[in-house]
Amino acid sequence: MFRMTLVLLLTAAAIAAGQKGWKTFEGAWFTIEYPREFVARVSLKSATGIGAESVFFASPDGAVEFYVFSPQWSGEPVDILLNERREKVVTRSEQQIDQYTVTLVTIADRGGRYTRSYRDIITENTRVVFGIKYRRAEDLVRFRPAFERFKKSLRQFAD
Predict the structure, then answer these.
(1) Regarding beta strands 87-97 and 100-109, do their DSSP bridges make them parallel or antiparallel, or are they unpaired?
(2) Which residues does 123 contact at the CB level (< 8 Å), separation at least 6?
(3) Are the C-beta atoms of residues 105 and 94 closer than 8 Å to each other?
(4) Which of 42, 47, 119, 128 has the fewest Cβ atoms surrounding its Cβ within 10 A?
């Protein structure tokens, strides 16, 4: 009995510690959680002038950067367009899943300084893009669990 109680208390403490390690960012039409030590940088502001439609979240060591684009309905994530002089598309695929068009694209810096990958999910009226930019493959592996949690934490709302 004591062992079971101790396990439950330690599990609850670990869950609470994990939740304390994250912040919530409130955009114009969404909220999303990100690691507490990351720095949020608003990129595209809402057409209403209040809040953000896209945000970058950078790790303190610069190894990785998370991205979300979540406008009220649809829009263009112009802040992540390919810079053909400095970058090249490594992979690109598009898939129709029910009412969703899902595009996956990976872009690499021509100098080998970084790679960035995006999942662009479009319906008839909505669009959401998640991205991750990383310096090395090891950084992608190291931050993948946090990135998955980041994506799952997105909560969208309309007016």
Answers:
(1) antiparallel
(2) 99, 100, 101
(3) no
(4) 47
Tens of pLDDT along 35-59? 999 999 999 999 888 899 999 999 9
Identity at 70, one-letter amino acid code: S
Nearest to 64 by CA among 137, 143, 134: 134
E strand spans, the chain? 22-26, 30-35, 39-45, 52-58, 64-69, 87-97, 100-109, 115-122, 127-134, 155-156
| AA letter at 28 | A
Smallest CA-to-CA distance from 154 within 71, 96, 78, 75 is with: 71
How far apart (Å, rounded) are the C-alpha atoms in residues 133 and 139? 9
Do the Cβ atoms of 26 and 51 come closer than 8 Å? yes
Q: Output DSSP code: residue 136.
A: S
